[in-house]
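To fix ideas, we quote verbatim one protein's residues and C-alpha cells.
>
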Amino acid sequence: MLASELISLEIPTLKPKDSVALALDLLSEYKIELLPVVDKENYLGMATEKLLENIIDDHTLLTKLSLECQNETVAADEHFFDILKKSNQFQTNALAVLDINKKYLGTVYKNNILEQFSQNASFDEKGGIIILSLNKQDYALSQISRLVESCNGKVLHLFISNDKEDPMKIDLFIKTNLSNLLPLKATFERFSYQIRYFHHENTDSSIEAERLEHLFKYINI
C-alpha cells in the first residue's frame, strides 16, 4: 500500500484565508487534531488544535499563523511502513502527500492507515500474532509455513522488519489463523527460533488496529 492509495478523501482541507474559528469547527466535526492548509496545490502546513486554541481572536486568518508540520511530508509512492516510520519520527498523526513536483495530493491519517492495513492483512479474521527474531541468512519461508501447518494452522499474513540494533537480523511478523499460539510457540522454540512477541486473544478489527500500532512501536517500525 502506497501513500497515494491511503489518502483520506473524506477529510477537508483549509485555505490560508480561512479563519481559526472555521478550522476549530472542522476539527471538532471530524474529531481530529490537525488539518492541512493548502493554497491551490501548494501545501503550507498543518493547523493543529493546540496551535489554534492558543489564538485569542478566532477571527484570525490562518495565513497569519506559523503553521506546523511544514516539512513533515511523504511522497506519493512511499510505502505504508515508511509512512508509519515518519509518523512516529515526527510524532504526528497526519502527513501531507506530495507528488514528484511537490504539489499537494492529500493527507494520510495514522488511524485510517492502521484500519486499512488491519483489513487488508486479515486482522479482522480470528487468529494470533507472533514475531520471531532471526538471522537474515536463516530466514526460510518454506520452513516457517511448514511449522505453522504442523500445528494445523496457516499463515494469513507475513512481513519482515529489519532489526534496528543488529543489521544482520530481522523481525518476522506472522499472522496466523490459530487462536491458541502456545503449540506453535513451543514448535518454533524447539527449532531454536527466538520469540519476541506473541498474542492470541480474539479481538475486533478496531481493537486489533490499536494493538497493531503499539506493536509497530515495539519493533521500531
User: Anything to note?
Assistant: The mean pLDDT is 85.
